[in-house]
Batch of 2 targets.
Target 1
Amino acid sequence: MTTPKPDAAASPPPGCPAHQAPSVTGLYGAAVADDPHGLYARLRAQYGPVAPIELEPGVEAWLVLGYPELLELTRNEQLFSKDSRRWRVPAEGRLRADSRLLPMTSWRPTLLNLDGAEHARLRAAVSDTLAQVDHRQLRQATEAAADTLIDGWGPDGTADLIAQYARRLPLMVFTQLIGLPAEAGPHIVELISHFVDSSDKSVRANAEFQAILLDLVRSRRQAPAADLTSWLLAHPAGLSDEEAVHHLVVLMVAGNETTINWTGNTLRLLLTDRRFRATLTGGRLTVSDALEEVLWRDPPTQNFPGRWATSDTVLGGQYISAGDMLVLGLAAANADPAVQQPSGEGLGGNRAHLAWGAGRHVCPAQHPARMIVETAVETLLHRLPDLQLAVPAHELAWRPSPWSRALVALPVLYSAFTPPRTPPVERPAWTPPSSPSPSASTPSEPTSTPRTPGSGRPGLRSWWNSLAGWWSGR
């Protein structure tokens, strides 16, 4: 990269956010929901690997579309900082107090917003905390939650895999992992959706969500338990209450929302792509291959804010001014012709995608997220092997979020249940102590007939049953 030598008499070239034409593309609304791949291709054709955009009317930014440019952006902290306090739009008074961008761009004392030594300290706390989660127990808990949700769908053979499965299952696991009570779950997922989608309720939802987590942190500070919150507070990094709250926000939003979208997008692929589904059922590919295909083509986070230029520079042929925001175009960079095979085949086993980001800020929660999603998809296919999409594929709608790639609904039809897997022998360490032990009764033998309402898994599943039943209005 060559840093330009500014000329006092010179004006930045066309394309600079400060000199954009009124017709600049907006990264919001129907355009980013209905056909994001077409949008990114048009921007690439018009501007190259870095394109000027608007995040909302009058708020400019750069969208990094190129694979090598995104790698350069994420690896050069000296030129491109994670500290959003460098953003010149709010500094110039051009960001409204009620802007929907605030929850996703406001500075917080987290690993997402810091560089250097402070970032390393906080990242170590989060990574070490996540490493304490036992993967075998996590898989067992995810299976139990999945079985409970499927059992509650009723005899009519219809379901919405977003509302009734993908959106509920991760939260049933995450609320338990961080130590929140079960009854808080539905309200929390609503709050998360508001500020991830940058809806008109995003600011208030963000404040309420943080208040809930602050109460949890103060409680665990006084009485630690076997959960992520307590482990985070006990880490040698010595997080303050404020730092702990903000990192729980990161875990819940990045972990929960990403897991929801990854599950839904993988199920959509299996139900709509005849080529992939045929090879999957034929035994050549696995669910793991499907997960990678989705991370390449429809990653759960399609764009992410961002980086802020520390000085005037050039990236991808564009003049970047100090204080400009650069948005990581994760989906667009994955589709960069420079890294795509001409045929578009063979992406399933290739993990060189940028769905998790890159550089020092690569997502630290990708491994537990993968285990939850893979288990959720495998369990559903095992229980309902004849799943079919209930509407034409072109009728599926996407949420109008500039950040998430998420379906509104995924309606399906099915005909019969198959038995779930053998229940876990012991309760995970972070299961609420009120749950009865799985050893209190003997699991029923597998059968090829539908299970009766009273034949659910004992022990661990009793907690899931009460939560799923309450959540379903029963």
Target 2
Amino acid sequence: MSVIKMADLDLAGKRVLIRQDLNVPLKKGVVADGTRIHASLPTIEMALKAGAKVMIMSHLGRPTEGEYEHQYSLAPVANYLSALLDQPVRLEQNWLEPEFIPVEAGEVVLCENVRFNIGEKANDDTLSRRMAKLCDVFVMDAFGTAHRAQASTHGVAKYAPVACAGPLLAAELEALAKALDNPARPLVAIVGGSKVSTKLTVLESLSKKVDQLIVGGGIANTFIAAEGHQVGNSLYEEDLIDTCKKLRAEAQARGGDIPVPVDVVCGKHFAENAEAEVKKVTDIVADDMIFDIGPKSAAALTEILKNAGTIVWNGPVGVFEFNQFGEGTKEVAMAIAESDAFSIAGGGDTLAAVSKYKICDDISYISTGGGAFLEFLEGKKLPAVDILEQRAAQA
């Protein structure tokens, strides 16, 4: 992917408008988890060090467009960011009126929630042009919103004098390209989740690229059913059994596979205190619910991961939130952590597992984008990246 990088530009004295993902959880008007703000900090500091006049855009929550709603104000983010930077961060509520925010070199201005503006989600052309007029350089640095064609992610990049990728976005694209475009082989992908239907395009896309595709969660249950086994009261999708058969047959025809669990961990009900029982897949009965892969299946996956050159991880292989049903995900997580492969992990549940098993430092790259990460795995063009590529080609 060829995009202009912010790190390669002279920003001295320039008005730099940065789109970041500062959509953080708030509790009683205070930032409850500042992970995304901390992740954005190096980009802001780089711009400040370069002598830029820094303006930042972000969304927060899902307010009604055209209406100011106090609960969705970025004021708590401004306060949090001010403390991190050890300098004032001015929140501009009416930042599009007039269309020239007064900002000095070395100053940081946070523009109020972009979703307060009518036309943001619709990628309105007029709004996009107004945003673009604010700056000399537009920096897209919010990978988590790169799959959305909106005014602050896509439209503004069309009309800004210069449009480039910030360090966070550039690193994300480089890591994904390394994992999928020219991976060290064998390439192994792990796709977990409750339903095949929600990740069908991901499964179809990855199955054509990878050497081994590992499935987990409710997805694995449907593959178990496709092998002719009973799954009891487990979550699965009967109407996609034929699809699972086809996907596995096609993978095997290419010399790969989608390994199906040979043993599982069952419970009688979905609860933290549910009793866990290891069973062969041939022994599942009508009132069983599959909540994890069994030890033999986990050991087989561990061997696959040990020999991998590249690992892409999206989704746990069981209900790891309950410890008695988390051993499979833990085994997979530790195998990835101990592997010499280049590994990339993405998706909310995956990152929760990474955190639970304390392997953050052992993953080569952790993706910040949930929906964008999935769409990239599906092989889709991300609108915000596509426009940056177009602008780079025109430069």
